[in-house]
Design a protein that fits this description.
Elements: H1 3-30, E1 59-65, E2 68-70, E3 73-77, E4 81-86, E5 95-96, E6 113-117, E7 122-127, E8 135-141
Parallel strand pairs: 1-4, 3-8
Antiparallel strand pairs: 1-2, 4-6, 5-7, 7-8
The protein binds copper (II) ion.
Copper (II) ion binds next to loops.
Length: 142
C-alpha cells in the first residue's frame, strides 16, 4: 500500500472519530437530565384562614410629625403590627417605657420606618429617646 494513502486514510479515520466524540459530548451536555422519574409533587392548597372579628390583625400606621406621634394613642388587637414612619427632617426613635425596652427602634431618619408586632396584651407607653417629651401609647387588646 502507498504510504501516503495510508496516512490519508488514518487521518480521515482520526477526524471522523474526533468529530464523533465532540458531537457526542455536546449532545450529552445539552440533553436535559431528569432528576428522577417521579412527577413533581404539587403541594396541597392550604385554605386561607377566614378573617373574622376574633382573629383580625392589622397594620396600623403612626406618623412621627411635628415632634409628636400621630395618633398619640392607638388601640390594636393582639398580633397586630404598628409601623412608625418619621416625616420630620430630623431623626427620632421609638423606645418602650418598660425597662429593658419591650421594643426599641434605631434612629429613624426622614422617610424611614420601624415596625413592631404586639403579641402581648397590655398598655405600652413609649417615647422618643432623643426628645423624651414626645410620648405615645399602644393599647393591645385580645
Ligand atoms: Cu424625637
Amino acid at each position: 500500500m502507498d504510504k501516503n494513502k495510508l496516512i490519508i486514510v488514518l487521518t480521515a479515520v482520526a477526524v471522523i472519530v474526533v468529530t464523533g466524540i465532540v458531537i457526542f459530548s455536546m449532545k450529552d451536555k445539552s440533553a436535559p437530565v431528569p432528576a428522577d422519574n417521579n412527577p413533581v409533587a404539587i403541594p396541597e392548597q392550604v385554605p386561607a384562614v377566614p378573617v373574622s372579628e376574633e382573629n383580625a390583625v392589622s397594620m396600623t400606621d403612626v406618623l412621627i410629625s411635628g415632634f409628636s406621634f400621630q395618633p398619640g394613642k392607638i388601640s390594636i388587637k393582639k398580633g397586630s403590627t404598628v409601623k412608625w414612619t418619621n416625616e420630620n427632617d430630623i431623626g427620632h426613635d421609638v423606645v418602650a417605657d418598660i425597662i429593658p425596652p419591650y421594643f426599641k427602634s434605631p434612629i429613624l431618619l426622614k422617610g424611614e420606618s420601624y415596625s413592631f408586632t404586639f403579641d402581648k396584651v397590655g398598655t405600652f407607653g413609649y417615647y422618643c429617646g432623643i426628645h423624651p417629651s414626645m410620648k405615645g401609647t399602644i393599647e393591645v387588646v385580645e
